[in-house]
Amino acid sequence: MRYDRAMAKKLPLLVTxxxxxxxxxxxxxxxxxxxSLALARRLGTSVEVxxxxxxxxxxxxxxxxxxxxxSQKEQLKNLVNPFxxxxxxRFLVGHPVPAIAxxxxxxxxxxxxxxxxxxxxxxxxxxxxxxxxxxxxxxxVPVMTVGPxxxxxxxxxxxxxxxxxxxxxxxxLDKTSAPAEHYAIELAKKLKGRxxxxxxxxxxxxxxxxxxxxxxxxxxxxxxxxxxxxxxxxKSLTKVAAKAKKARVEFSSxxxxxxxxxxxxxxxxxxxxxxxxxxxxxxxxxxxxxxxxGSTARGVILxxxxxxxxxxx
Length: 313
Description:
By secondary structure, the protein is an alpha/beta fold. The protein has a single domain (4-311), classed as Rossmann fold (3-Layer(aba) Sandwich). Helices cover 44% and strands 19% of the residues. It is built from twelve helices and twelve strands. The chain has helices at residues 4-8, 23-43, 55-58, 65-80, 96-103, 130-138, 148-152, 178-191, 207-214, 220-246, 262-273, 295-303; strands at residues 13-16, 47-54, 86-94, 113-116, 120-121, 126-127, 143-146, 166-170, 194-200, 250-256, 277-281, 308-311. Helix 5 (96-103) runs parallel beside helix 6 (130-138) and helix 11 packs parallel to helix 12. 41% of the residues are buried. Residues 1-7, 121-127 and 284-293 have low confidence and may be disordered.
């Protein structure tokens, strides 16, 4: 999937929102809107807000449906009024994920879909929330998720400043990562920013090989394997650099060889580079697997100091 045509237009950003009134939700909404408007200003475009009234919940109290919907419409209006730059508020009734998917199904209609997430910790893994994860899996347009760490730094967001934007793109250096690499370069060109590509050498390898690579000393065969992986990775990064050069976008890159988790490698790189945005592919090996969002992508979204844009293959 390529985004050249869409990127050539000044498409609006579409921000999904909820109407929860607790303090944490209000702060999350403010942070997401702040970052969305900052990106929109950089792109010279506008922001639209979408709220989907959950028909499954409303159907449980049909006698009060009209009152509830009218109240929610008023809440949505009050929510967006304080934010100059939000040009349209969309109110739909339905099941959230299919409704959002339908709105974004048409290519070339929105620059990105934006959502916030609070993040939750379960017994075995962290969760973004069922709606957030489903949107990431099914959206046909790039999705910018503002995680809890990015929300906490919203007031100091690199997007809102005057410095050159830095886009960190996590790549597996294979065909599944090509759309994310391409999108990052095109977005950097649009924002007059620079791209830094990060590749985790161990990501996607068999766990036994990862463990062996983390051992201070290894067999001759293992050392040869590592040298071969590094050589191939450096060669692939050179090709990505050539694409950035052709687009006249400043480019740098790093190879992470340590035994830290791939998500930590991306987060650390984002901090070191002062990232304005992080870009990842949604089908890259080791990033999204099975019916749930994979641990690497989830970890990056929850821990990144910058919003994370996921690009579907």
